[in-house]
Amino acid sequence: MHYSDFGPTFALEQLAEDHDVSVSKETLRHWMAGAGIWKTHKERRSRVYQPRNRRDCFGELIQIDGSHHWWFEDRDPKCTLLVYVDDTTSKLAHLRFAQSENAFDYFHATKAYLNEYEKPLSFYRDKHAVFRTTHASYKDATTGMTQFGRALHELNIDIICANSPQAKGRVERANKTLQDRLVKELRLRNINTIKDANAYMPEFMADYNARFGKEPRNGKDMHRPFSEHDSLDGAMCHKEFRTFSHTLTLRYDKVLFILEPSEFATGLARKRVTICDYPDGRLEIQYDGVTLLYRTFDKLRSVNRAEVVENKRLGPALEMIAAIQAEREVSRSQAAPRRTRQTGHMF
User: Fold this and answer.
1) Dist. CA 194–CA 20, nearest whole Å
2) What is the DSSP string of 186-235?
3) What's the predicted TM-score (pTM) here?
4) In sequence order, what are the beta bridge partners of 145?
5) N or C end of the chain: smaller count of CB under 10 Å?
6) What is the pLDDT of residues 226-252, one digit of tens each?
7) Domain around 18
8) How confident is the model at residue 115 (pLDDT cuts 50, 70, 90)?
């Protein structure tokens, strides 16, 4: 059966839209239950959790989560969908497919969300390492922050941690619905790549929100405009601090950065600077708000002197070279995955 893994409601919609078949939903549900492809509510076992009332206004609380799933079934590898759901209306505020749930893709997704809606009061999320560190200090709220937490702090947006998946039930239920409906919509439209899926998301969200969105109790929009000192691009990046050596060099992600000589640069020896590593691959070195010119020397990409290898030893030599190259690939810092996208910058 073409719709064997569809739920009754979604299957009924597809039968009506694509095949001009009209039956009642309860009749279809009865048929599917009798065929063993749909379980009734009594047959499903679930725990009971205390309900929590929705927030009153749009933009008051935005629930976010990453759903790692076979979104393209066997047509493409398993990937992650970053989901943003408004707690008040249950509407999808933003969807973005990514290879994995990491800080750089959350920067991309959150930046897109903020460009569309501006600043919500708070984001509500789980205890994923992107959002919460286990090394926080009770004396200083800014220590132990993750890069994503630091970015929201710079923009004056609160971030709240849920104690259980059920606490952020809106986005968890949305994930469950998406893993059913969205997978099938992608199949029906023959969408097989992350790029094509992201292009389809606005259309899907509009249809989803029209079907499942709720009206807020209060029509006020709690999103706040950006202030004069807010820098969305400057906040949504990976930031680390380094100190220039007396030779005006520093190391970051196993790459040596060499400051271009100038009268201003000469005075930066032993000065502490900020490295801004952007999701799009750009990297800036800043001192007191000034972007510095630099060139790079990548030790991991340096070429060794060619060795003389006898023909009979060529096979073992190639095996050793392959092992060394594999080791070089994994030796990159996990803290800055952007490096694989950057081929070298010189400003």
Assistant:
1) 31
2) HHHTT--SHHHHHHHHHHHHHHHHHHH----SS--B--BPPPTT--HHHH
3) 0.70
4) none
5) N
6) 999 999 999 999 999 999 999 999 999
7) 8-43
8) very high
